[in-house]
Specification:
- The chain has ten helices and ten strands.
- By secondary structure, the protein is of the alpha/beta class.
- It has one domain: 3-Layer(aba) Sandwich (Rossmann fold), CATH 3.40.50.1820.
- The radius of gyration is 18 Å and the shape is globular.
Length: 309
């Protein structure tokens, strides 16, 4: 259990490490085939969840969800989107069609009930997750933890001077918000503040008002990775522009930081996870008590919503 908790904790701070370590890897990758792990539930037919992690690359976050969800009759597809061969080594200009193919594949896997499909995403993964939900009416539920309201600049650990979009669509870079370095490089949230405060270009916004299913947004008011609370407010406002949209659930924890949606098993599992995370909370933002509360409450909320969808 300790090893599992450390793994999950490591995933939670993956978005921090890419700015600290000098990363390497191929600049472009092959996205013709999906790279994922499939964790099927034992009962059929089952509901299924596409899990998209943050800037650690994707693989691993879904595995931690599968440990909890498989026993509840929910299968999990844990998708990698960079950093794992033959995919790109950098989070830069990744085809949005790759995520669409993952979504299309989910409903075809053995035992899956195609009418009960959901998405769970955290941090950087919320960009493609919300985009998918906006463009696929069969998304019953999308959970976006520490979310973005728009497309941001990509992350190239081998070349920090590279200014490119995170994603492409139909072979062209998607419009994005570039980073701003005028406030310094620490905390990392500084890169994003100007892009939110000065107004986001309309073409970079994610059209969440088009989402037909239930939307769950989870944010921390002291997020030190990016301004998830402000971006959640922007998502709320855009979602409300369509009068028929009444399936929005928002939980904003004012004293919590980044990436608190982490699955755990029982009180012992929660404690071990928090112990493993403790050294990194300064990077993520907020305090330990608020993080623990946000983690527990949001996890229970997501479990409840998954059983409904």
């Amino acid at each position: 259990m300790k090893r599992k908790s450390l793994l999950i904790a490591g995933l939670a701070v993956g978005m921090v490490i890419f700015f600290i370590l000098n990363g390497h890897g191929q600049q472009s990758g092959n996205y013709k085939k999906l790279v994922y792990d499939w964790y099927p539930a034992s009962t059929t037919p089952v509901s299924a969840v596409l899990v998209i992690g943050g800037s650690e690359g994707g693989i691993g976050y879904g595995k931690s969800w599968a440990r909890v969800l498989n026993g509840k009759g929910i299968s999990v597809l844990d998708l990698a989107f960079f950093g794992k061969a033959p995919l790109s080594g950098q989070l830069e200009e990744i085809p949005m069609e790759y995520f669409q193919r993952a979504w299309d594949t989910l409903s075809t896997l053995a035992g899956v009930n195609a009418k009960k499909l959901s998405i769970i995403a955290v941090s950087k993964g919320t960009e493609p997750a919300l985009w998918l939900a906006a463009h696929n009416s069969n998304v019953s539920l999308v959970v976006a933890a520490s979310p973005s309201h728009a497309i941001w600049q990509g992350i190239n650990r081998a070349n920090y001077s590279s200014v490119k979009s995170s994603w492409t669509l139909a072979g062209k870079p998607m419009p994005f918000i570039p980073y701003d370095y005028s406030r310094g490089t620490y905390p990392i949230v500084n890169f994003y503040l100007k892009g939110v405060e000065s107004g986001t270009p309309a073409e970079a916004l994610i059209p969440v008002e088009k989402i037909k299913g239930t939307v769950v947004l989870l944010a921390g008011g002291k997020d030190m990775i990016w301004p998830a609370s402000a971006m959640t407010s922007a998502l709320e406002k855009r979602y409300a522009t369509v009068s028929g949209n009444k399936k929005l659930i928002v939980r904003n924890y004012p004293d919590a930081g980044h990436g608190f949606l982490l699955p755990f098993e029982g009180e012992a599992g929660k404690k071990k996870l928090m112990d493993a995370l403790a050294p990194n909370l300064g990077f993520l933002g907020g305090d330990a008590a608020a993080f623990a509360q946000a983690m527990e409450e949001s996890f229970q909320l997501v479990l409840e919503e998954l059983t409904r969808h």
